[in-house]
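Sequence in, structure out. Go.
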Amino acid sequence: MRYKRSVYRSLALITQFGINMLVPIFLCVMAGVYLGKKFEINWITIPLFAMGALAGFRNIFIMAKKIYSDETPSRHASVSGKQNSHDKISSRHSDMSGLHQWDREKDTVHVKKN
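Output:
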C-alpha cells in the first residue's frame, strides 16, 4: 500500500512539473500569435516563447525549492517516512511560536518618543 502511495505522489509531482512548465509557454505563444496577426509582426512569437520558457523554469525552480525546503532532517532519519509523536509536537510548537510572534507584533503599540 505504501509503495502505491509513493508512486502516485511521484506521478502527481511529475504532472505538476509538466503543467508548471507548459502553461506559461502555451499562453505566451498564443499571445505571440495573436499579437503577430493583429499588428502584422509574426516574429514576436519567438521572444514571447522564450519569455514563457523562462517563466516555466522559474515556476519549476520555485516549486522544487519549496519541496526540498519542506523536507526536514527528521523525515530523512525515519525509515518508515512517518513522523513520530515527538516530531509532530515539535512541528506544532514551531508553528504556534511563529503565530504567537505574529500576534505580538500585531498587538504592539508604537509610541513616538519626543
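Check: The mean pLDDT is 77. Helices lie at 2-39, 45-70, 73-77, 85-107.
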